């Protein structure tokens, strides 16, 4: 398997064209060979830092709206720890990002994919992996290097464009089975997007305004960020403080970080990679 260092820090290796942290290789290989979806499964899929945590919280709340606050598991655990234990996603931690187009084609289960514009994704990755891998050390990996590795595709779960385009095409081919959401649309028109998600999941109450508002509030960054568990707790499997998963959640935050050259480089690549797909990933 091809291997290389990600940000001079952790080894990543390539499996069928996609990069993963070496630590996860065995689990990934086992999953890829042993994955047997059921027809009523709904798998949540995404690239890293594109809205996964939000999507998990939304799906959890759509399915568990009747719970009172006492039973709200999101109040006690990171969404990443809560959702894999649900029926809708029986996978072990971390595997939901594995690129799965073949499985998508062959299985009868449904997928929800959340995509985000590449410039905010890079900036979010830069914050997250600097905190996670350098453990808040004094010397963060330079943003320029982060953009370089993102554009080359050699980042955990990358390459980004092949990931997103694969799911996009699948969602066009089989819209009843693959729902393609965008982080920016969730921010811009949250109620409409939640209704779409709930209806795709076959949940009742998707047309009830109060229900939709409750789902949105319970899943909101503002609420989750302030929960004690997400301020001071840790997701042990990932050895990551929960606080790392909740930052600004702002569309267009890249403008505060990327130079015009960096932005232009990403834009040009985006143009090239999305050409002819009908997909746009604007902020
Ligand atoms: N509930 C909710 N609502 C809106 N936005 C949210 C929410 N939870 C997390 N975030 C923001 O999503 C970004 C992290 O993406 P992921 O959840 O995909 O990260 S991860 O790959 O699962 O680690 C990261 O974006 P940035 O703030 O731009 O870094 C988080 O702040």
The molecules bound to the chains, other than polymers, are: 3'-phosphate-adenosine-5'-phosphate sulfate
Widest sheet: strand ordering = 1-2-3
- Helix run count: 13
The main pleated sheet reads as: 3 strands, antiparallel
State the total count of DSSP E strands.
Answer: 8
Going by helix content, strand content and strand pairing, the class is alpha/beta
The stretches of 5 or more residues where confidence is low (pLDDT under 50) are: 85-95
Cα-based radius of gyration, to the nearest Å: 18 Å
Residues in β-strands, percent:
5-15%
Could you give the distance between the termini?
35 Å
Mean pLDDT: 88
Order of helices and strands: EEEHEHHHEHHHEHHHHHEEH
Q: Label the overall shape.
A: globular
Helicity range of the residues? 40-55%
Offer a few descriptive terms.
283 residues; three-stranded parallel beta sheet; alpha/beta; three-stranded antiparallel beta sheet; 13 helices; binds 3'-phosphate-adenosine-5'-phosphate sulfate
């Amino acid at each position: 398997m091809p291997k290389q260092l990600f940000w001079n820090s952790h080894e990543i290796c390539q499996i069928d064209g996609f990069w993963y942290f070496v630590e996860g290789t065995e689990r990934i290989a086992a999953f890829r060979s042993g994955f047997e979806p059921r027809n009523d499964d709904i798998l949540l899929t995404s690239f890293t830092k594109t809205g996964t945590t939000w999507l998990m919280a939304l799906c959890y709340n759509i399915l568990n709206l009747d719970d009172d606050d006492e039973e709200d598991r999101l109040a006690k655990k990171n969404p990443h720890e809560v959702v894999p234990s649900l029926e809708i996603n029986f996978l072990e931690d971390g595997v939901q990002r594995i690129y799965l187009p073949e499985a998508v084609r062959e299985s009868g289960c449904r997928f929800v994919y959340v995509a985000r514009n590449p410039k905010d994704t890079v900036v979010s990755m830069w914050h997250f992996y600097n905190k996670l891998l350098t453990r808040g050390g004094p010397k963060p990996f330079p943003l320029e290097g982060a953009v370089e590795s993102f554009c080359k595709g050699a980042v955990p779960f990358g390459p980004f464009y092949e990931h997103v385009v694969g799911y996009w095409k699948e969602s066009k081919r089989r819209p009843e089975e693959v729902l393609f959401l965008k982080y920016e649309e969730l921010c811009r028109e949250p109620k409409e997007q939640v209704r779409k998600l709930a209806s795709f999941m076959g949940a009742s109450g998707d047309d009830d305004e109060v229900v939709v508002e409750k789902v949105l509030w319970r899943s909101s960054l503002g609420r989750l960020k302030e929960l004690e568990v997400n301020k001071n707790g840790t997701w042990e499997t990932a050895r990551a403080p929960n606080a790392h998963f909740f930052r600004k959640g702002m569309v267009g935050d890249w403008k505060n970080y990327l130079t015009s050259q960096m932005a232009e480089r990403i834009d040009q690549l985006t143009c090239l990679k999305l050409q002819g797909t009908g997909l746009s990933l604007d902020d």
